[in-house]
Amino acid sequence: MPNAVIVDAVRLASGKGKMGGALSATHPVELLAHVLRSLIDRTGIDPAQVDDVIGGCVQQVGEQALNISRTALLSAGFPDSVPATTIDRQCGSSQQAAHFAAQGVLAGAYDIVIACGVESMSRIPMGTSPIGQDASGPGIAARYPDGLVHQGISAELIAAKWKLDRETLDQYSARSHQRAAHAIAQGWFDHEIVPIDVADGAGATVSHTVDETVRSATDVAGLAGLNSSFRTDEFAARFPEAQWHITPGNSSPLTDGASAVLIMSEEAAARLGLRPRARFHSFAVAGDDPVFMLTAPIPATRKALAKGGLGIDDIDAYEVNEAFAPVPLAWAHELAADPAKLNPAGGAIALGHALGSSGTRLLTTLVNHLERTGGRYGLQTMCEGAGMANATVIERL
């Protein structure tokens, strides 16, 4: 069986997911096209050799509709002969794209494939797809008569179950910003971020190279003054155990972004004279309670470690998506994970969570962290809507 290897991985610096954000004036097709072009330019491969492009995007509506991965590769100048598909596994969409790409290589169906993702939350607001529609149907209503809830409530339920108080959540969130600010100052992201020209507030063209969502001055005292985001009388009555600790400060911000990873067989890399940076060691996907929704990274991680014959202490770095602070904290408690290895360059609370882009963004950051530190194994996992998660273990080469 061939190895599925990562040859290169790139991302855009995050933009605030609101009008006026750094990337908000750029069409999402062009965000994705830019990282696809960057992969080709950096590696020098002929794009005609790419067997498939598999992209992740959550809000596949409006400017992100009609298979944005195919539209983006055409905009990027790839030949007409290169196909593409766009998938939705909610927040883990591009991580799942990477799984499908690697699995295709392992099966011998692909030699060279790109996994990627994009989300413009400024131009296509979260929740746009099902507006005015019943996205669940009568079967879900019958199975869950009290109704499913949105992710903010799920985060509150996790905080209550794992007894995570407000100060603990805010301390973790401040640390995310501090680590991300340190990473920026040290140039840790310089090799993974590709510059993109954007229009600033005055209409001038500038190069966007720094994550816009990181707030270096964030501290616990400032976060303590923020109000609960999700408490309503209805939810308070339904969930008396909730303490209503989730605020904008311990949640990931709305974000624009795109990222892409070039994956191929080891033989193809050798043939093209390219150096593999990492290989896929094991991966897994799992489901969990859709009301708690955000806990599936725990069983997904256990499955991926078991498939790879590894223990948590064998892993040199963990990238656990910070949709909300309780998610990585509950994960770390259940896995007995070393907090020093958890999101060492900051996580989504600081760097942003551009939904469909986040899976390959985490993978990009993880590859670069292992190279910078000399670590061997890295693990990433991502909570996803409706109670799912992907987990991926990579090995630096």
Automatic annotation (TrEMBL):
<protein>
    <submittedName>
        <fullName>Acetyl-CoA C-acyltransferase</fullName>
        <ecNumber>2.3.1.16</ecNumber>
    </submittedName>
</protein>
<keyword id="KW-0012">Acyltransferase</keyword>
<dbReference type="InterPro" id="IPR020616">
    <property type="entry name" value="Thiolase_N"/>
</dbReference>
<dbReference type="InterPro" id="IPR020617">
    <property type="entry name" value="Thiolase_C"/>
</dbReference>
<feature type="domain" description="Thiolase N-terminal">
    <location>
        <begin position="5"/>
        <end position="267"/>
    </location>
</feature>
<dbReference type="InterPro" id="IPR002155">
    <property type="entry name" value="Thiolase"/>
</dbReference>
<dbReference type="Pfam" id="PF02803">
    <property type="entry name" value="Thiolase_C"/>
</dbReference>
<keyword id="KW-0808">Transferase</keyword>
<dbReference type="Pfam" id="PF00108">
    <property type="entry name" value="Thiolase_N"/>
</dbReference>
<dbReference type="InterPro" id="IPR016039">
    <property type="entry name" value="Thiolase-like"/>
</dbReference>
<comment type="similarity">
    <text>Belongs to the thiolase-like superfamily. Thiolase family.</text>
</comment>
<dbReference type="GO" id="GO:0003988">
    <property type="term" value="F:acetyl-CoA C-acyltransferase activity"/>
</dbReference>
<feature type="domain" description="Thiolase C-terminal">
    <location>
        <begin position="275"/>
        <end position="396"/>
    </location>
</feature>
